[in-house]
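FAQ: What does the model actually see?

It sees only this:
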Amino acid sequence: MQSLLRWSIENSTDPNPNGPPPEPRKDIDPGIIDMILGRPDAELMKEDMSLATDPSKTEDERVAALDHMEMLIEQIDNANDLAKLKLWEPLHALLTASTSTPEIKMQALWVIGTAIQNNPSAQDAYLALDPLSTLISFLTPSPSSTLQTRSKAIYTLSGLLKHNSPAVQQLNNPSINGWKYLRDALSDPEITVRRKTIFLLSTLLLPTTSASSAISSAPIHEPLHDNSHAAHISNPERASTSTLTASALQTHGILNALVQALTSPLPYGEDGDVVEPDVTFEETGIRLFHTYLVLCGQQLSKEDAETLKFWMKAEQEKDGGEKKLADRWALYLADLKELVAKLG
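And it is asked to produce this:
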């Protein structure tokens, strides 16, 4: 639309129906047109990337450029243009560049995460760079991997993994060892990272069979465009991550880590002095176990089931009954009873 308006302004003149076609006007300053219409987003995105990757610029200038780019790629067409403009490679390279400060890396993670959220086309373009080992590495606390950076890494991983079974499969790659890092993140010193991690695991575990069937049974009459969910229509199984996740939770010791995180939570906080259980983490964990045992029809080891059941019984007595415990965990009473029954 901007290109059409630009052409209209540049070529506007009094028409002469009997004369030759008008020549394009040369007397209009392109700067004036830019002021009226604004510069094309693709041009702005390339300029932002040029600034963000320029080590001669200050950290504030580079972060501001990435912040502006993040705003632009909130539009799905712009996010898909990252591939056409060949911007994915330099954007990803910012995560490992020696000239990137922790603040720049965090902002780059934010841009990537926003671009791939609910966008299969962008997910595929980014996954082609084999980024998982780099993203996963940010989950280990260190001076260069701050709370904010780890939180943004989870945000980016969430965007890449959700409804994307090819990406989830890569977590099993020994060179990535992604499930191990996610398991360790459940005991991160910061409760925010623990919450984001357990929420991601819970999301990946949710069955999507009904959605997949509905999509696969629908006739396809329209062409599939890059900015649509064409990948899910052509391959409905792509969106299903539940089976992969259920298997990984058991194989990589994540179920046991979750049981321990709920029943014997580690302290958290700036000084590690907060010992009270976190309500949000607890609620998400219980929902995850309900999904795993009831909706997915899986089983816990005898030891884990007994530990979880004993703890839930103690919490029920503390709260004064099943109904109050269900309310505390935002469950229907019937869901809580189903969960308890599955524990044996």
